[in-house]
């Protein structure tokens, strides 16, 4: 597709800024959904590992028991580390899409109305309606929700480290 020179400033890589904005918005929304899906999948896998570890820990002590417990906790440490990296990667994608979306909103002159700037306005300027979440806003200042996908696996990594040590106890 050929772009006319006078409209070049309103296009990105040969397509209209409106089309690019729509694609950015869809990718951003998809990445947000993936972030929480990734965390859900991690919690499911961790629950299964923890249940298996606790079940085996409750059995009579044997030589193989300590080995199996250690392997389960080692597996938990490995998936926790991998999920931390995956969470950081998806956060990077979301941040990049957000930056692209904000730039597109400025070019489209909708920077106060679009989801990219609008979300930031709601979070920082408190221009939106008051909700129950406003009373719990201090929680978001401790750990913003975008970090949950990396912090929660980090906490589980510590739990699995403790379980690894407990594997050889008794």
What's the helix and strand layout?
Elements: E1 11-12, E2 15-16, H1 17-57, H2 63-108, H3 115-125, H4 132-135, H5 137-142, H6 148-167
Antiparallel strand pairs: 1-2
Written account of the structure:
The protein has a domain at 17-113 and 148-167. It is 75% helix and 2% strand. The chain has six helices and two strands. β1 (11-12) and β2 (15-16) form a beta hairpin. The longest helix is centred in the middle third of the chain and has 46 residues, at 63-108. The chain is elongated and about 70 Å long.
How much of the sequence lies in strands comes to under 5%
The assigned structural class equals: mainly alpha
State the end-to-end CA separation: 72 Å
Q: Helix share of residues?
A: over 70%
Question: What is the mean predicted local confidence, pLDDT?
Answer: 82
What topology, given as strand order, has the largest sheet? 1-2
Shape type: elongated
What oligomeric assembly is this protein in?
single chain
Number of strands: 2
Question: Could you list some keywords that capture this structure?
Answer:
170 residues; mainly alpha; two-stranded antiparallel ribbon; 6 helices; 2 strands; elongated; disordered N terminus
């Amino acid at each position: 597709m050929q772009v006319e020179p006078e409209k070049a400033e309103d296009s990105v890589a040969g397509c209209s800024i409106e089309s690019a904005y729509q694609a950015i918005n869809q990718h951003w929304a998809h990445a947000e959904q993936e972030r929480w899906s990734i965390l859900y999948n991690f919690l499911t896998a961790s629950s299964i590992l923890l249940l298996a570890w606790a079940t085996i820990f409750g059995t009579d002590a044997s030589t193989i028991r300590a080995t199996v417990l250690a392997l389960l906790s080692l597996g938990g440490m490995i998936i926790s580390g991998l999920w931390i990296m995956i969470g950081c990667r998806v956060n990077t994608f979301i941040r990049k899409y957000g930056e692209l979306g904000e730039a597109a909103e400025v070019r489209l002159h909708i920077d106060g109305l679009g989801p990219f700037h609008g979300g930031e306005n709601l979070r920082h300027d408190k221009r939106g309606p008051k909700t129950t979440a406003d009373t719990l806003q201090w929680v978001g200042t401790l750990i913003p929700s975008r970090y949950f996908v990396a912090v929660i696996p980090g906490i589980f990594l510590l739990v699995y480290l403790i379980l690894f040590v407990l594997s050889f106890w008794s």
